[in-house]
Backbone:
């Protein structure tokens, strides 16, 4: 059964810092991994999708890496800004036994960037 | 306009009432999903549909039913609402094929409160 863990659960940093959010998963037989951002009471916005054949993906100040063999992904945020304050979720497809057709979500890292 | 639209955005109802949450999408995706989000529990899959004639239960389908009226429309019903169904509900779509779910796109969410 695929399980997804995100550490830390909450993070508070001063503006301008570079930071890393972690996501680990138990079943490495995945097609892809997706990172989302969620603002309070809002929907999930897709940030990056990494295919299993890729090691990393970049979008602006965001860089996500994927290491399938160790069951880990990291989301790197460069030069953080107060507008980056949100909850960041990672999601991976389920295992072949539980169903690869559905995503399993971590409970997220709540990020606060202080001005 | 949003690619994935949910209505209503907020709803307060009483125990025992029938409630329908609607989702429509303009992305042209075949796959649609209903998720529920509760604090501390993350997102959990209620139902999913891979095409108009395909409906499947997710991990927490008890007390819910769905209807896929068209490729672009997927509605979630609570036949007799109960207080522990108070949550934030999300519709999502993807263009996956086979076992590869593909990138998920979410609506803004429907906040349901059952008194």
Residues:
């Amino acid at each position: 059964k695929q399980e997804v863990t995100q550490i830390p659960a909450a993070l508070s940093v001063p503006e301008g810092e570079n930071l890393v959010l972690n996501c680990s998963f138990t079943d490495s037989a995945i097609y892809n991994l997706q990172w989302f951002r969620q603002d309070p009471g809002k929907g999930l916005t897709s940030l990056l999708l990494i295919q299993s054949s890729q090691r990393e993906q970049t979008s602006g100040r965001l860089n996500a890496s994927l290491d399938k063999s160790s069951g880990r992904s990291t989301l790197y945020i460069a030069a953080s800004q107060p507008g980056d304050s949100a909850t960041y979720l990672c999601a991976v497809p389920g295992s072949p036994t539980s169903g690869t057709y559905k995503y399993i979500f971590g409970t997220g890292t709540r990020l606060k960037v202080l001005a | 306009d949003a690619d994935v639209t949910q209505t209503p955005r907020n709803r307060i109802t009483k125990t025992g009432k029938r409630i329908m949450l609607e989702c429509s999408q303009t992305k042209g995706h075949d796959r649609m999903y209903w998720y529920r989000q509760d604090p501390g529990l993350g997102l959990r899959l209620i139902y999913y549909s891979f095409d108009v004639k395909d409906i499947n239960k997710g991990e927490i389908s008890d007390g819910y039913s769905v209807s896929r009226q068209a490729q672009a429309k997927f509605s979630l019903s609570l036949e007799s609402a109960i207080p522990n169904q108070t949550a934030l509900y999300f519709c999502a779509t993807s263009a996956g094929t086979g076992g590869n779910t593909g990138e998920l796109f979410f609506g803004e969410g429907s906040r349901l409160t059952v008194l």
Q: What stands out?
A: The interface with chain A takes residues 33, 40-43, 45, 48, 50, 58, 88, 90, 92, 96, 99-109, 111 of chain B (CB under 8 Å). The radius of gyration of chain B is 13 Å.
